[in-house]
Amino acid sequence: AHERTGEAESLEADHEDHASIWPFGIGVGMFVTFLGLSGLTPYVADFATARGAELAGNTAGSENVLYPALSLVGVGILGVALFQYGREEFNAPEMAIAERWPFEGVGTTKTGVWFFLASDVVVFGAVIGAYVFMRIHGGWGTFETVPPSATIGLINTYVLLTSSFTVVIALVMAERGNKRGLLASMGVTLLLGLTFLAIKSYEWGQEFAHGIYWFTELQYSMYFVTTGLHALHVILGLLIAGFMIYRIVSVDAYLEDDRPVEYFGLYWHFVDIVWVILFPLFYLM
Questions:
Q1: What do you get for the CA distance between the two ends of the chain, in Å?
Q2: Between the chain's N and C termini, which has fewer beta carbons within 10 Å?
């Protein structure tokens, strides 16, 4: 057991416990979201089929709304809870203990970010590995690229690479204490991420119009699952970027402590690297 010093006990006595309802709200939001997702697959399939029929010039539709509504409500609750939890201030005195953290020179938050990215490497590695195994097992040359055109994927590649550059600029601006530069570079990053998602949505719509769905064939399933998983990571990054922009505007955040900008940059660069791997795998090979 750690041996507390008298100074640590004094600091702990002066610091009042900070109760927060928002972790409970996060749990409720996740429960409702996954409750909706548990029955969403048939509804999403109907929506995709209807969307493809509309783009092809036919008419189709679906009136099922229960599970999609539950998913949207859950995402809304989760978003509000995360936002409010992020706004809370937790300024507790650091307690001295008899033993020291062996990686004292490395921040615990940064270490956590790297562990998170390592777990994401495992997730994407499993999905990409499954796709490669499937192609090798079925004969690599028998597969055709799923997207009708590689041009859209190439444009999206340039969009994401440019957004990585703007994130680097954001870190430089934060280090210099330049609020306008930081706000502008983060704003451009947000716009580029939204552009990527808009182009990807258009591309998926065109694929639906050509009768390409994730439930059509196994190779299509792998394509939509992998690129959809990547798109979810982009959405998460955009939510973080939006929250950071809010903090910059409201309380001049990250001008004295630029580490959150660095951590966001690590995540965003990882998302870009994953796309650089997915682009040749699905569009060119």
A1: 56
A2: N
Do 171 and 258 lie in a common domain? yes
Of 164, 170, 228, 220, nearest to 197 by C-alpha is 228
Select from 77, 99, 121 the last residue of a domain: 99
CA atoms within 13 A on the CB side of 178: 13
Q: How far is CA 282 from CA 132, 138, 195, 212, in A?
A: 10, 16, 20, 14
Q: Single out the residue of 113, 101, 77, 135 nearest to residue 262, CA to CA.
A: 113
114/177 same-domain check: yes
Q: CA-to-CA distance for 248 and 255, rounded, in angstroms?
A: 8
Question: What is the chain's percent helix, strand, coil content, to nearest 5?
Answer: 75, 0, 25
pTM: 0.70
C-beta separation of 265 from 171 below 8 A: yes
Which of 79, 99, 119 is the C-terminal boundary of a domain? 99
The CATH number of the domain holding residue 114 is 1.20.120.80
pLDDT, one tens digit for every residue, the chain (285 residues): 344 445 445 544 554 556 678 888 888 888 888 787 777 666 555 655 665 555 555 544 445 677 778 888 888 888 888 888 777 766 555 555 545 556 666 677 888 888 989 999 999 999 888 888 887 876 666 666 677 678 899 999 999 999 999 999 999 999 999 999 999 999 999 999 999 999 999 988 888 887 878 777 777 888 888 999 999 999 999 999 999 999 999 888 888 888 999 999 999 999 999 999 999 888 887
DSSP symbol at 108: H
- Does residue 178 sit in the same domain as residue 211? yes
Number of domains in the chain: 2
Coil/strand/helix, residue 4: strand
